[in-house]
Amino acid sequence: MENMSLDDIKNFATVKKWSENLIEQWGDVPDLDKRIGALVDFVNYVERDPDKIVEECLRQSDEGMRIKLKARREIIAEIAEFEKEHGGRRAGNHVRSFLIHNGIAMSPSVEAGV
After folding, report:
1. Domain range annotation of the chain
2. pLDDT digits over 19-64, tens only?
3. 109, 102, 114: which is closest to 49 by C-alpha?
4. What pTM did the predictor assign?
């Protein structure tokens, strides 16, 4: 995958959904481009587009969409690596927000001494 830009990523359905949900929830979101920028950094880091990341974590079942637990564990690990190497906890939280707004519940691990 070629590196994605802020303008590129805004065209993905999952990013539009996230942005619209944030605006609906909070009204004015002055740092929206910064949040989306953290997602740009993450998708470039993992070399997958945002729609693909969400697709990998969900599956259709008789009861509706379900989270693929193994895929969720893998994405949680990728976010942890990304935080250490690139953006810190705040950038990771923006990525988690993106996933949560697209139906993927995140369960951060408990860190001792925090």
Report:
1. 6-101
2. 999 999 999 999 999 999 999 999 999 999 999 999 999 999 998 8
3. 102
4. 0.89
